[in-house]
Design brief:
The chain contains 26 helices and four strands. It has 568 residues and is mainly alpha-helical.
Length: 568
């Protein structure tokens, strides 16, 4: 039930799978559309929920602050689980308010049922969700303590949420279910980590790549100041009950962050609504003490100023390549695959669908390109089976160029900027130059490696990496006459052996990749690393020397002049 190495909750993956299968097939548009739709739903839920706690004008201000905050701007463009956190939190807070206000038993039970359903969905969406559940549970206990007749609602809430989340509880209690959580837990309130979160929020977000705005904190200076003013105003005008339970809710929302030993801003997802609510009260507090004047004018100017600050943070600081603070950030926000997509899209517009092979490289981490090109990729889109293509594209290591050029004389090569983590090249080969048995073999191998990559992305962390080599065994002797596929196979075997710490077999597999495939520069370099880790320094030195003297290095340097017909 849990997905990926870090054992993520499944709800977002289920939603994405339903969307791609029944509504829109994978494409760059559908990838962007899912978080955008969730963001719109979150904004509507924010206004609906805040109307139960604030006046109409204050609810509008809160919704404005949420909608145009840097936090929500990034979430609305992020195809990942954090996009669901605000939506479910607002739904739960709104339903909880309706439950507390209901007078008739029928409406109370109806809202309690919807609340249990929404709270349970949260457990399938966010690792940090127990903080929200604890907050609601404490208030339910308090209400039951004040009125013993409400104990039945407390019991129903406990029983309902536990029953509905039992499959998730079972998954979390499996041998690997808590591995990522345990790795990031460091006892009770590690103060150094807590201080880092405070710094990232208010004045220096650079230690938190790749999602930091790279200019101040996640809360812009004006928003942070308003939140502080709002806190004091809240203490002044609200009654004791709301002060106690709002502070408890805020502290519970901080627990996922302050109990961890590492920095990840989305552990504070449930705390952001509290900051924004405090900033809303800050505006209300200012309106109560400023001289008599049309308040809507300066409030409008204030809201537009807040918008301008966060727009600047997002579009000029967060999205601007020139402001990227570190190589780590560049790795997670690399535009290399977007560049590859644009070239493939251009080719598709000119000549129609393509055979695009994206699984013959060692990047198993970033496979967004597969969804972006799905609509015109004959290799992976079954709806295009039987369609002929004029061009075949390969996304492979760039130093494979000179060897493919000998085999396919009309090969075209796009020289991409070198970037972390891999030096990939994009090669176009006229499909007519590839014999049908060869392209069918490539498609078969691509499908096998795609399945392996799916399993890697969903890898149970307690299982060894060697398992993936066993899943590729059918390809070992199947394509002996194709040095290209032989090289891909043995390089992948070497990679998995190396990650597993078996450097002896990794070195052997790299040697086989060089002998049976193409003797590329990066293979010699990786062979040298494996030999060096084995303590075989002289052999490693020779491998390193070979990596700097291969023809593929000259091909990379001269690629721009060899193929000027490809637009850079």
């Amino acid at each position: 039930m849990l997905f990926s190495e870090i054992r993520l909750e499944p709800l977002f993956i289920w939603i994405s799978a339903f969307f791609f299968k029944y509504l829109l097939s994978p494409s760059l548009l559908s990838i962007r559309l899912i978080p955008a739709l969730i963001s719109i739903a979150s904004i509507l839920a924010a206004y609906w929920a805040s109307r139960k706690y604030l006046t109409k004008s204050m609810a509008f201000i809160f919704t404005w602050l949420f909608s145009f905050s840097f936090f929500e701007m990034t979430l609305s463009r992020l195809l990942a689980w954090p996009t669901l956190a605000p939506l479910l939190q607002f739904l739960c807070l709104g339903l909880f308010a309706h439950f507390l206000e209901s007078k008739s038993p029928r409406s109370q039970w109806a809202f309690l049922f919807l609340l249990c359903l929404s709270v349970s969905l949260g457990f399938y969406a966010c690792t940090t969700w127990p903080a929200v559940w604890l907050f609601l549970l404490v208030i339910m206990v308090s209400k039951a303590y004040d009125d013993h007749k409400k104990i039945v609602f407390l019991a129903a809430f406990l029983a309902g949420t536990i029953l509905l989340t039992y499959p998730m509880i079972q998954a979390r209690l499996s041998p690997s279910g808590m591995s990522h959580i345990k790795a990031n837990f460091n006892g009770f309130i590690p103060w150094e980590s807590s201080a880092s979160y405070g710094s990232v929020l208010f004045w220096d977000s650079k230690p938190d790549p790749p999602f930091s705005p790279n200019w101040g904190g996640y809360l812009n200076p004006l928003l942070g100041s308003l939140a502080l003013i709002g806190f004091f105003y809240f203490l002044k005008v609200f009654d004791f009950f709301w002060i106690i339970f709002s502070i408890l809710g805020f502290l519970f929302s901080l627990l996922p962050a302050i109990l961890s030993n590492s920095l990840e801003i989305y552990r504070l997802s449930h705390a952001f609504p509290f900051f924004l609510a405090s900033a809303t009260l800050g505006i209300r507090g200012l309106a109560s003490v400023l001289p008599k004047m049309p308040s809507w004018r300066w409030i409008a100017c204030l809201l537009l100023t807040l918008l301008a600050l966060d727009v600047y943070k997002y579009f000029w600081r967060f999205c601007g390549d020139e402001t990227l603070p570190s190589a780590i950030t560049s790795q997670f926000r690399s535009v290399k695959y977007f560049q590859i997509y644009k070239f493939l899209e251009q080719k598709n517009a000119e000549t129609g669908p393509l055979h695009v092979f994206t699984e013959f490289n060692m990047d198993y981490e970033n496979k967004v390109i597969n969804a972006a090109i799905y609509s015109f990729n004959i290799v992976q889109n079954l709806a295009l089976t039987g369609v002929d293509s004029q061009w075949t594209a390969l996304v492979i290591p760039s130093d494979e160029g000179p060897f493919l050029q000998k085999r396919f004389p009309h090969l075209e090569y796009v020289l991409l900027p070198q970037n972390v983590p891999l030096s990939l090249g994009l090669f176009f080969i006229p499909t007519r130059e590839i014999p049908p048995p060869v392209i069918h073999a490539w498609i078969e191998a691509d499908h096998v490696y795609q399945e392996v990559n799916f399993k890697i992305r969903n890898r149970d962390p307690i299982l060894p990496w060697d398992l993936f080599t066993k899943q590729m065994v059918p390809l070992k002797d199947k394509f002996q006459d194709d040095p290209f596929l032989q090289g891909v196979y043995w390089e992948k075997v070497a990679f998995f052996k190396g990650v597993a710490g078996d450097y002896q077999n990794a070195a052997f597999a790299y040697q086989r990749a060089i002998q049976k495939g193409y003797p590329m520069a990066h293979l010699y370099y990786d062979l040298g690393l494996s030999l060096k880790l084995l303590g075989r320094n002289q052999e490693a030195q020779r491998a390193f020397q070979n990596s700097t003297g291969t023809a593929s290095k000259e091909f990379i340097r001269s690629g721009e002049t060899l193929y000027p017909q490809i637009k850079k």
